[in-house]
Structures are given as structure tokens and as C-alpha cells.
Batch of 2 targets.
Target 1
Amino acid sequence: MKFSEQVVLGSTLVKFNSLTFLQHGCGCLIGMAGAASGEIMFDSPEGHERMRTMFPWLFGVRITQCPACNTRHINYATAISCVAHHVEDKSWTFDQALAYIRSIEPGEDVDPPDVVVPVWNRYHGVPA
Ligand SMILES: [Zn+2]
């Protein structure tokens, strides 16, 4: 399931709170996706690490901007957290946040073998 779909599903499971990942029945936008995965329990200390494994694109270093306030962020995860604060103070809607998330998330079928095989071959001296 895509991250954005998990956020939608998680919004039915978790009370929104931009200040917490996934605690006491509440969660931020990223926490909602975690709850929907069924793999992260509330108040789990490993929750953040599981999210990194499930959605590495959220945490990869890339200079990005919050679409609501233009603050610069070091990855999509912190930009999404910033957006969550705007939803919390009602300057942005949940639907706007969702549209932003859909605009940055990668497509479902990323196909790495095209890249991996030639590199492996070159490394092992296999002619192209
Ligand atoms: Zn912001």
C-alpha cells in the first residue's frame, strides 16, 4: 500500500495530533501511516525505525521545502511533520496535506534490476 493510502486509512484509526508520532491513541500524519501498516503499535520505541524500513524515501536526505510555510527541510519526513503542524493550527486542511504527500511519493512499481544488473556485470567483468 502506498504511503498516502496508509495515511488515509490511519486517519480512521488514530486521533490526529501533530506533536506525537504514535502515542496514546494519537498520531501525526506519519504516525497514521504507521498505524495503518499494522506493524507498529502505539508507544512502540521501534516505531520510527520501522517507518524508515517501510518508507526509506521519507528519510533520505534531500533539501525540500514545506509547501505551506516554505521552511527548508532536510527530508520529506520533516517537511510532512511541518505540514502536520499547519493542519493542527487549521491553516491547512487534511486534504491539502494529502495532496502534497501524493505529489512527492514515488510510484508503486519502482524497478531497480535494470540498474543493478549492469553494475553487477561490470564489477564482475561480464561484457555488456
Ligand atoms: Zn511548514
Target 2
Amino acid sequence: MNALAATSRNFRQAARLLGLDSKLEKSLLIPFREIKVECTIPKDDGTLASFVGFRVQHDNARGPMKGGIRYHPEVDPDEVNALAQLMTWKTAVAAVPYGGAKGGIGCSPGDLSRSELERLTRVFTQKIHDLIGTHTDIPAPDMGTNSQTMAWIFDEYSKFHGHSPAVVTGKPIDLGGSLGRDAATGRGVMYATEALLAEYGKSISGSTFVIQGFGNVGSWAAQLIHEKGGKVIALGDVSGTIRNKAGIDVPALMKHRNEGGQLKDFHGAEVMDASELLVHECDVLLPCALGGVLNRENAPDVKAKFIIEAANHPTDPEADEILTKKGVVVLPDIYANAGGVIVSYFEWVQNIQGFMWEEEKVNMELHKYMNSAFQNIKAMCKSQDCNLRMGAFTLGVNRVARATDTVVDDSSYIHHH
Ligand SMILES: NC(=O)c1ccc[n+]([C@@H]2O[C@H](COP(=O)([O-])OP(=O)(O)OC[C@H]3O[C@@H](n4cnc5c(N)ncnc54)[C@H](O)[C@@H]3O)[C@@H](O)[C@H]2O)c1
């Protein structure tokens, strides 16, 4: 099942639980706008290269649309569509005043030079500058993009619209980025893990963790979990997969990676087969890389007791059913990885206020938002008698439905009178 079908299925199930009107349900599913643009750039060797860029704006009932931009060879319109929809529910779950969007360019960022990436980002921005904006749609980094990418978008956008730092979040600190934004998704994942484990009388310290992906989300989650006394016993990225029963020294691994080393060459662990990572023995499994990695093939072999969906859509619905039957507790993506969008919201607020917060304030507010969302999800699970994924979906969908309903009622009032 592809990402769009899976997300829509979760949405429909939530709509049914909530007893939503079928017309409202249909209108919530259809994206606000889908944009597809051709981006042609001269490569460093003078030849031309063409790429396809996407932006799907899903819903703006609760505020400007918000979502990441990813650079990945497998970016396709269906997946971007699903991720945009997920952002609508995620911003609602997190209770930040945004709608949902997502975008990307089908490219392999690792095969492009820095100047080629800059040209590609600027061309993409030229093509979509009329459709994004501080109060319409605010992009952020995602897989394959980072604060540098956001700086290029901000600069290119500002050529058309004047100085507009709040048009993107995840910017470098010197350009109006927020302290704590870089770590925010990983930190939110850590807070979410803490909240979930506490429900079961457990804590991060004393638990074992397996992490897939060592990029922005995975590496921060690993570091913060390590700081809290959690034992990261296996970890993998595209360059290799490693394990150490006694716990990987995450700060040493960070140092190794920051010096250009690959995971497989790290001395403090042994290399293992990548296919064994997700089914490795552990208390908590954190997929922090791609979507769809847990499926009907590997789900029966998962040994983790808890899965924290740090990546977007890592568990397909078939795997979800299998895991539920096995008694594995899955903390859903639309809550677990919301730390990024929450601190993006703080960054946007700071840009609009022209006032910079201290990092302690950012982290403290993030903690409050993550905890309060967890309590709200738990309350939904109780009132709807459902699992955490449906608890989060019903919470998000209900908030968007209420906002939509209010506006629809008002406009029909204006038309009729
Ligand atoms: N960055 C954010 O703020 C943010 C926020 C919410 C959700 N997410 C989601 O988290 C996930 C990771 O995002 P990121 O920003 O860390 O991206 P990133 O590009 O920084 O890192 C991705 C990591 O995944 C690894 N990876 C890629 N393919 C893999 C494979 N087949 N097997 C194992 N590892 C693989 C890469 O080597 C890298 O370590 C994505 O699903 C993204 O949508 C990110």
C-alpha cells in the first residue's frame, strides 16, 4: 500500500470514529493545491540537467500551510501528497496554528555539487515564490535538505518580496533561525519516548534502543537518548549498520561522523547486516530514515516492545496490524516527530516578533507542547477506545474539522443574507 493510500485510510478510520459528515470528510481529503514545476539548471560542466519539483498544499483551515521540502530520488507526487496531508493532522495534533503542506525535488543531492544544489534551489524558489509566503505556506527542511537550503530559499524569495525571514523555518541562526531548531525533531522524539515509557513504568535510562537513520533526526535522537542514560545498541544509515551490545558511545560516533567517517568504519562497534536492523532485539525501535520500512515481510520478526515513528510513515498499515496483534506499542509519526514543526512555529513567531528566545526557553516550550499533545492523545484513546495512532488521528482530524466547519458556516451565512 502506498503512502497516500495508507494515510487516507487512517484519516477515513478517524473520520468514522468521530462520526464526521461525509461531505466534510471528502473536502478534508482533497488537497488545497498541487504544484509541479520543471527545474532546469546548468551543471558545473556546462551541460543542462532537468528536475521535477513538487509542492502540495493540503489544508489551511487552522493557519498558513507548513511542511518540509525533501531532495530525494524517490520523491513522487503521491508520496508528497500523503506527507502534506500528514502535516495537516500533525500541526493540529501539536496545536500549532498551521495547516499542512509538503514539497520536494526528485534528485540525488549527494550527486550534486554545492553550487548545483544552490542553483536548483533558487530555480525551484523562482517557480513557487508566488505560492509560498509568511502567511500562506512556510517550507522547512526535510530529508536531503538543511539550513543552507532554507537560506537560499529565503534569499531568493526576498528578491521578489522584500526581506522575509518568516517565509521558511530551519534557517541558520545568523539569518533568523531559532536556537534549538536543529535538534528539535530529535529532542521532541526523546520527550515523546520519555512520555510513552513513563506510561508503562519505564524510562529511557535502563532501556535499549535501535535507530535507523543517522541524519538530522536520528543523530539528535541518539545523542539525547544517550545523554538520558539510554543504551543505543544498534544503528544504521545508508553507509552501513553497526551494533554494540554494551551500548554505542554516541558522542564518539558523532565525532567520527563529523570528521567524515562512515558508520561501518567506526571502531566502537561491529558491522552487521542492514536487513537485521529493524528486527534486532531491543526495547525501543526508532525508524528515523525513510517511509514504509516496516512492512508485512519484516513486521512479524520485530522484537521491539515500543516503536517510536520518528520518520514519516515508517509503518505501512499491514505492518501496523501485525504489530498491534503482537502487542507492540507504536507511537505514531504525526505526534512523535512533531518537535520539528513545533520549534519551526517558535522560529516563525520569533521572526514575526523580531525577538530571539534563549535556547532554554525553546526547549522548555517544546517539552510543554509535546507533553500536552501526549495527554490530549491519551484522552482521545480513552474516549474513542482506540490505539495511539487513532488517538492522534482523531485528535488532529477533529481540530481541523472544527476549524473548517466554523469557516464554512460563516461563508454560507454571508452568501445567503
Ligand atoms: N528533519 C526534521 O525536522 C524532520 C521533522 C519531521 C519528520 N522528519 C522525518 O524524519 C525522517 C528523517 O529525516 P532527516 O531530516 O533526519 O533526514 P536526513 O536526510 O538528515 O537523514 C536521513 C538518514 O536516513 C538514512 N537513510 C536513508 N536511506 C536509508 C536506508 N535505506 N536505510 C537506512 N538508513 C537510510 C540516511 O543515511 C540518513 O542518515 C524523514 O522521514 C523525515 O520526513 C524530519
